[in-house]
Design brief:
It is built from 3 helices and 12 strands. The chain has 226 residues and is α+β, with helices and mostly antiparallel strands.
Length: 226
C-alpha cells in the first residue's frame, strides 16, 4: 500500500511541475538567431558573434540573441538562459565584462540597430545580470542566468501573443579604444550542442490538471478492484 501511495504521489507531483527546455536539442523551439550588432544594425555572423571592439578596429558591438517561444502554452514559474563563451580576443578577458539585458518581444525575429548598446548601464532596458561574462572567463565556459524576472518576461511575451524574445550581451565599457578586444560566444549558427538556450519550468493549465486528476481517480479505482 505504501509503495502505491508513493507512486500516486509521484505521478501527481510530476504533473504539477513539468520541466522543459528551449534548446538546440528541440528543433522547433531552438534559438533562432544571434548576431553581433552595432549602431548600423546586425552584422550577420551567427556562428561566433562578438561583444566588444571589432577585429582590428575600435567600433563597438554587442550581441543580440533571439528565441522562439511560440510553443509556450502555460505559465513559466522559473527560467534560465545559457550561453557558451567561445573565446576572449586581444585581451578582452582582462579588459571588460559582458552584461545580460532583456530587450523586447515581437512577432518577428528581426534584429534592429536599436538593439545595440555598449556601456555601463542601459537605462532603457532591464539588466538581468551584471557581469554575465566576467573578466577571466576561459574559452568553452558555459555561463547562465536564472531569475523570477526572466520567467516573468517570458510570461508577459506569451500573454501578449508574441512569438519571439530578444536578449542582449553588452560590453560594460563604451570606449572605442579597445583595439579588437572582444568576447566571442557560440551562436545560433554553431552546432546544435553549442547554441544558446533557454530552460524553463511550467505549471500546466487547469484543463491539463483536470485530465491528470481523472487519470488518478481511474488508477485508484482499478487498484481497489484488484
Amino acid at each position: 500500500m505504501n509503495s502505491y501511495r508513493a507512486s500516486t504521489f509521484g505521478i501527481l507531483a510530476c504533473s504539477l511541475m513539468m520541466s522543459w527546455c528551449i534548446t538546440a536539442h528541440a528543433d522547433v523551439i531552438s534559438a533562432v538567431d544571434s548576431q553581433a550588432v552595432d549602431s548600423t544594425g546586425p552584422q550577420g555572423d551567427t556562428t561566433a558573434p562578438d561583444i566588444g571592439a571589432v577585429s582590428g578596429g575600435t567600433t563597438m558591438r554587442s550581441t543580440v540573441i533571439v528565441f522562439d517561444i511560440g510553443a509556450l502554452a502555460d505559465d513559466v514559474t522559473s527560467a534560465g538562459l545559457y550561453v557558451q563563451v567561445l573565446a576572449a580576443r586581444s585581451g578582452a578577458s582582462s579588459s571588460f565584462n559582458a552584461d545580460l539585458y532583456q530587450l523586447r518581444s515581437a512577432n518577428t525575429a528581426d534584429i534592429i540597430a536599436g538593439d545595440f548598446f555598449a556601456g555601463t548601464d542601459d537605462a532603457g532596458n532591464t539588466k538581468l545580470h551584471d557581469n554575465f561574462i566576467p573578466m577571466g572567463t576561459v574559452a568553452n565556459t558555459w555561463v547562465n542566468h536564472s531569475s523570477v524576472t526572466l520567467a516573468g518576461f517570458l510570461n508577459t511575451a506569451r500573454l501578449a501573443g508574441d512569438d519571439f524574445v530578444f536578449f542582449r550581451l553588452s560590453p560594460d565599457v563604451a570606449s572605442t579604444a579597445q583595439n579588437g578586444r572582444r568576447w566571442e560566444i557560440r551562436g545560433s549558427g554553431d552546432i546544435l550542442d553549442n547554441r544558446p538556450y533557454l530552460e524553463y519550468t511550467l505549471i500546466p493549465e487547469p484543463a491539463s490538471l483536470a485530465l491528470v486528476g481523472a487519470a488518478l481517480v481511474m488508477l485508484i479505482g482499478r487498484r481497489r478492484r484488484d
